[in-house]
Amino acid sequence: MTQQLSAAEVVNEPIGDLTADLARAARPTSRTTLVLAALVAFVVVFGAGAWTHALLSGPSSPESTSAVPGGGNRGPQPGQGGVIMRPEGGQGGQRPPGRG
């Protein structure tokens, strides 16, 4: 059975080596702690940026996505409307009148 100490005995009892405790508390933080703190800060900032971007950009629409598998925007394709410019300048490969 443990012995009960009075309040005066508890206060007068030494708590340990105060000099060693103060020296341990005065040590700078380790490199590992600093790296982990930097990683946590990076993740928090990245998450806040992604959240802000999602909040401000609004919902995406199907028209804004690329119709080409694999991405990229290749411009209007035949059959999708719009004007298709042909390099020969004529109608379907025919030469313009008067150009022999």
Describe this structure as you would to a colleague.
The protein has 100 residues and is an all-alpha fold. The chain is 42% helix and 0% strand. The chain is rod-shaped.
Describe what is shown at a glance.
This protein is mostly helical and 100 residues long.
Classify the helix fraction into a percent range: 40-55%
Sheet having the most strands: none
Oligomer: single chain
Q: In percent terms, what proportion of residues is strand? A: under 5%
C-alpha end-to-end distance: 119 Å
In total, the number of strands is 0
Give short descriptive properties of this protein:
mainly alpha; 42% helix; 100 residues
Topology:
Blueprint: H1 7-12, H2 18-26, H3 31-57
